[in-house]
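Backbone geometry:

***
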Amino acid sequence: MSNAIFYVFMIGTALSALGMLFTKNIFYAAMLLMACLLCIAGLYVFLQAEFLAITQILVYAGGVVVVIIFGIMLTVKSGGKPLAVGNTNILAGCLAGVFFFFLFANAFMQHFGTSLKATHHSAAMHDVGLLLLRDFALPFEVAGILLLVALIGAALTAGEK
């Protein structure tokens, strides 16, 4: 049963990524990006990387995509039509994607080979969590303020006529 759920997350990731490539509505692309990131978080859970899954949900799906959606909402034309983007050079993009996929897959297999196995490092994860929340809290706060300033700047720029 768990293998079937794993494959559902894999297929959901692939379909949402393909949907992002072929949609012309930028808001739908942002929603598909969120679906893709959530499916990746589900894959992390099945790979026993719960810390990465939570980080994926909080930082990317919960933070970055929300900022993208706010940016889209603030910059949409006032005519009531959704902002549409055109896709050009689809064939070249697909060929480049396939090339880089095989390049990264080859590098991954050469580095790790067949010695992949799941290990538990709960003490190491605990230390990483402490470092993030104790020693590196200031950089995260500065990044949050930077994103807020960028959002305010986008709102002011979109409001000017």
User: Anything to note?
Assistant: Residues 50-75 form the longest helix (26 residues). The mean pLDDT is 79. The chain is about 80% helix and 0% strand. The two ends are 56 Å apart (CA to CA).
